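To whoever is on call:

I kicked off a structure prediction for a single chain this morning and the downstream step that reads the tokens threw a length-mismatch warning. I double-checked the sequence; it's 450 residues and nothing unusual in it as far as I can see. Pasting both halves so you can look.
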Amino acid sequence: MSEGRTPKGLFIETYGCQMNVYDSERMRDVLAPLGYAQVDKPDEADLVVLNTCHIREKATEKVYSEIGRLRAHKERRQAEGKGMTIAIAGCVAQAEGEEIIRRAPAVDLVVGPQAYHKLPELIARAARKTGERLAADFTAQEKFDALPARAPDGVTAFLSIQEGCDKFCTFCVVPYTRGAEYSRPLADVLAEARSLAERGVREITLLGQNVNAYHGDGGAGFAALLRDLAQIDGVERLRYTTSHPIEMTDELIALHGDEPKLMPYLHLPVQSGSDRILKAMNRKHDGAFYRAIVERLRAARPDIALSTDLIVGFPGETEKEFEATLQLVRDVGFASAYSFKYSARPGTPAAVMMGQVPEEEKAERLARLQRLLSEQQRAFNTSQVDGVLPVLVTGNGRRPGQKHGRSPYLQAVHFDDTRARPGDIVPVRILSASQNSLAGARLERMAELA
């Protein structure tokens, strides 16, 4: 942006998964050369982007509801002689683009998840009122090739290495909104990681719809990529999400025990504990396979903690099959989890399956499951009390002298320390635990008090 030029306001509302968070960050990178700077409220923005998710039920209607609120802001700004461009991005844009254009005249642009690198061109067309308002047909490769250098705003960062899905779980829209699996070239991933490290990033989370299905050029697999990333100076922590059980190779499992930079916390979705339901979901694994993967991971890295995804009320699920899910949760023991009622997504095979479970039954089962998961999460957090964890400092706390950071298990940690700076990794003795965070004191201070 040239000196003295007034910045244009940019407001991005992000829904859904970490992939969307990454995409929103990259949209900001793409738009920065055009003079856009982030603002806190949509009514202050010249450009509003809704980066949408299509996984949950009624996602599209939620988008239309938000568009209605934005339309009022747009009309007010127009009355004041100001403009506002409204763009709908992400998976709802990909799935419902033409319908959004038809139903919502206030929307200026509809941009699929593989096309947001075209935003500068599309905005220019919208200003001239020429060209298409819908862009949803580009490839992941074209998008990544066109993106500018990253501009991270902290010591942690997401790094997208794989997009799309070829697994075709019967409940999921991702193969239809994100397309076929695509793995970025190894050299491109390593170059972006080095750039992030040079800009102060200490922890990188690798992203993909099936991130451990990564297969780079030259036959480089996911474990090989992790080993290469661990060699980059400045990168101290590595994570990845979302993984699939059938892609947990022997090499990857062993790496969890061999590579100290690979954090001992893994998100490994299982979805159900019932073998019949898993087959109906087309998950390509059963409960015994999942339990065996967990056992091997814990043998390789005894301190590893797991999180997962679980769906209750999948079509045809009986009370006995739901109990199998509860039993799997008891058997494995999760540090955290994401659990949902099944919601039918148009165009997916499960949406037309017989035996749709009544909403009240789904709600009751979800409540029982979440009580169990909450107990496990509290127990895991409490197990850290009196221990010492290496905490990556991410910023200042709410009061003077307080810092906040991340444990190896992705827990938020708050502690008093006037010396630590963002990016430092410091030993913290954990003094108390809540449902979602830990509190402690830096180890040196504890030694002085002793």
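Update from on-call: the warning came from a stale cache, not from the record. Cleared it. Sanity check on the structure: Confidence is low (pLDDT under 50) at residues 445-450.
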